[in-house]
Amino acid sequence: MEFKQIVEQRYATKKFDGKTIPQDKVNQLFDIIRLSASSFNLQPWKIKVITDAETKKKLTPASWNQPQIESCSHLLIFCADTNVDTNIDKLEQLMLNNGAQASAIQGYLDIMRNFSKNMEPKKKVDWAKHQIYIALGNALNGAKSLGFDSCPMEGFSPEEYTKILNLPSHLVPTVVCPIGYAADIQKQKLRFPREEIFF
């Protein structure tokens, strides 16, 4: 499928048929998400994957009782990771393991560490949340490219998700993306004309 077709055919699925996506397809989607762009390549996200019916049922009231939560195959919960310094350390080790010379990357590491040091906790959350939406875009189009559907959702309580899933304090649920096979019908896409967007 051409990328233009993927974008045209992708839509926010409101109900899934409950069938399970084969794991090899899910793994392919995970790699598409994993390869997403991010500022400094710090990848400040963790994605909690829910497949069991019991947990989905617990999350439904915290998701405004939207049917996507329980009817999907996999529920992806994109969490902003505010452990920026930890990610910098991990990225440094990854670069060294891939042949970078310590002296060659020191300047870049200093820039990243100063960037992190100058951010207050709330700013770190906001920054990480912005990065997540890049990965979410890959998830939405990646799902359609692999033959299944998705629905980006901000309609949920991050606080309740944190409690139900017992998430650590450095992970902030930001957006939910159920994936599966659609049981509804795509409506016509309504978008503003090109002339109203580009100027």
Number of domains: 1
Low-confidence runs:
none
How many beta strands in the DSSP annotation?
4
- The number of helical runs is 9
By CATH, the topology is NADH Oxidase
Largest sheet: 4 strands, antiparallel
Provide mean pLDDT, rounded: 98
Alpha-beta content class: alpha+beta
Helix % is 40-55%
List SSEs in N-to-C order. HHEHHEHHHEHEH
CATH architecture assignment = 3-Layer(aba) Sandwich
Instruction: Supply the CATH class.
Output: Alpha Beta
What is the alpha-carbon Rg in Å? 19 Å
Distance between the termini: 30 Å
Q: Please state how the strands of the largest beta sheet are arranged side by side.
A: 1-2-4-3
Give the overall form. globular
Estimated share of beta-strand residues = 5-15%
CATH superfamily: NADH Oxidase
